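User: Design a sequence. Structure:
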């Protein structure tokens, strides 16, 4: 069997979005669950956008779609990091080879365990693990994944640890609990927006350097 046949057994993890002068046929505004069973024929280099990173969070930088990469990483939680890197490198199309290091935008792969938390040696900041902790640009970096330095496994940072104990709460207690929960989710959304903006700035810098 040819390599070409093997290559198409799995989708590319990043793709180039259609830009001016052509219709974005595969850009979808909805949830992934609305399209996963679609019978449409799909071009392997023009994959649908993704739902991830929170409710209807779409990563558009006008050039590249990282949707399936994020979904792939979420499915590899607990996997050996070397194996994950190898598969990602095999699933980036050659015409987008300049993005081969894009994993570092989403994964903190150089972590040092300190008494105060997990230190990202690339960013020189602590990973924000507790959504209740105030976010400080000078101290924290927000990423969805990190590599455990002891096990070399990919770890997804939990959005919010579930400590819900609503049973037996009075109406007033339950209302206060829901208000707190809503505020925490708002903080989570703000953190992910900051993460998106940071990655988009890095993408723009790559494109700028390529044009020069």
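Assistant: Done.
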């Amino acid at each position: 069997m040819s390599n070409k046949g093997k290559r198409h057994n799995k989708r590319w993890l990043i793709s180039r979005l259609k830009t001016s002068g052509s219709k974005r046929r595969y850009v979808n505004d909805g949830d992934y669950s609305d399209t996963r069973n679609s019978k449409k024929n799909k071009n392997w280099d023009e994959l649908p956008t993704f739902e991830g990173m929170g409710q209807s969070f779409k990563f558009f930088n006008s050039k590249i779609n990282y949707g399936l990469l994020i979904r792939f990483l979420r499915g590899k939680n607990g996997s050996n990091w070397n194996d994950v890197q190898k598969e990602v490198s095999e699933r980036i199309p050659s015409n987008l080879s300049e993005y081969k290091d894009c994993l570092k935008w989403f994964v903190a792969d150089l972590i040092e365990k300190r008494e105060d938390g997990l230190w990202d040696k690339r960013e020189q900041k602590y990973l924000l693990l507790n959504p209740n902790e105030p976010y400080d640009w000078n101290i924290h970096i927000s990423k969805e994944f990190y590599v455990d330095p002891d096990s070399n496994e990919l770890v997804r940072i939990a959005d919010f640890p579930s400590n819900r104990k609503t049973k037996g709460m009075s109406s007033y207690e339950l209302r206060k609990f829901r208000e707190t929960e809503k505020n925490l989710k708002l903080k989570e959304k703000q953190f992910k927006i900051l993460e998106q903006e940071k990655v988009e700035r890095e993408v723009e810098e790559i494109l700028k350097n390529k044009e020069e």
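Strands lie at 15-16, 64-65, 107-108, 111-114, 117-120, 125-127, 140-141, 145-147, 154-156. Residues 171-211 form the longest helix (41 residues).
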